[in-house]
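User: My instructor asked us to take a sequence, write out its structure as tokens, and then describe one feature of it. I'm not sure where to start. Here is the sequence I was given:
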Amino acid sequence: APFVESGGGSVQPGGSLRLSCTASAIRLADYAIGWFRQAPGKEREEVSCIKGSDGSTLYTDSVRGRFTISRDNAENTVFLQMNSLNVEDTAVYYCSAVTVGTNGCTPFGRWGQGTQVTVSS
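Assistant: Let's start with the prediction itself. The structure tokens for your sequence are:
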């Protein structure tokens, strides 16, 4: 898989984590990149995306105001800063190249291993 996710872990409600998405074979700055998550027994869902062209961002309603997506082109990395985490944020988080349209961000390509985020007291 071209993408490698890292930074997950276990935190208490209200805690923070910063996820990283890197790639060795492609230049992330050439793509819109999205973060997705999949909780046990649920379908994978879009969390946030950042365009490659102008850096504009999109967030799903449940994370807006708590999560921030950003990119460091020099480090070929896209970050997801997650604050005020709650138990509903528990999931495996994945990143992917995406196309951005009226329906949000559509991933393409293969998924990586993901990184586990667990929020519990």
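For the description part of your assignment, you could build on this observation: The radius of gyration is 13 Å. Try explaining in your own words what that tells you about the chain.
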